[in-house]
């Protein structure tokens, strides 16, 4: 579907024009300020909705502006009429009707038009002005069968997981490196040594207990001697108790003599066992066992780090495979501009960043992308046609013919011999040859 006829009255600088375009390239020419832009803007305002209208859509001195478009292929299929009016309070209102040639109207005209209009139809250079990330988003729509967002989400998740795994592997490697390597050692059973130490301790404790008992016996002997002395003194004082006291004294002396004899005949105490060597041996055994345990810990840490590194490598391979799949799909997509490619956050044209391309190259590429993303209405508006030389104009014309596009282009020209010429808001009637 294309524009078969444009009528615009009192829109912006226009007074009244009627254009029936020819061919794929429709050139609106004239001097600066003649009303060329108003022609292209009238198409935009009629089709794209109220938001596309300028702040002052009505020509100075007029109270109403009307734009009428006949859309179709060979025959008229739709008639679009957009009207702007100035109310008594100075505000501007707009109305829209979309009808078929037989007069049937559509209940939601703007919704219906939105389905016809391509994303970049009215501003194909939006692609060239967009940031690389936005350009890539536009180009992704031209690659069928690839869910770029899903791939990016999967790669991001794998990247985060790989980062965490690698960090953990580095930590394990660092911990393992902090453990000093040891020569081959045989674990030592500490149980026997500890038992030996306990036996020695019990032996020495028994010696101490026996010594304490002997010291108590010696103390008892001394106490008995003192008791005997006291009894003799009491015997002297208490003669009536002398016999009893003498007997008690005798008994005490006899008991003391017996204990003295036992003490004198007691076997010598054995020498204490030196436990320092046993303790040193236990400490050496513990040190060896600690080294063996740390060596085993180092092996475990290295093994776990190796396992995590294998996981990270597997995630890397998965991301690379997805990126290869994405690259293959992009290559097979046959993008609308030869040499156009994208990836790694950048769009390139013939191997160089798109932003470094010439203005004409950017315009041609943007128009091709806009045409590819066009809706049912195969119309493109270009306001910067003066940037194109004759070769560029021919390329656009050929592109329009090849892809069935109607390209409306604004071009500064004062010769009066190029396309539809606008002067002072009016159409200078072209010949059929000039219009073509």
Task: Give the biggest sheet.
Answer: 5 strands, antiparallel
Strand content: 15-25%
Class from secondary-structure proportions = alpha+beta
| Topology as a string of helices (H) and strands (E) | EEEHEEEHHHHHHHEEEHEHEEEH
From the N-terminal CA to the C-terminal CA, the straight-line distance is: 19 Å
Q: Please indicate the count of domains.
A: 2
* The CATH class of the largest domain: Alpha Beta
Total number of helical segments? 11
CATH architectural group of the largest domain: 3-Layer(aba) Sandwich
CATH superfamily of the largest domain: P-loop containing nucleotide triphosphate hydrolases
Tell me the strand order in the biggest sheet. Answer: 2-1-4-5-6
Q: What is the percent of helical residues?
A: 40-55%
Q: Tell me, what's the shape?
A: rod-shaped
Tell me how many strands there are. Answer: 13
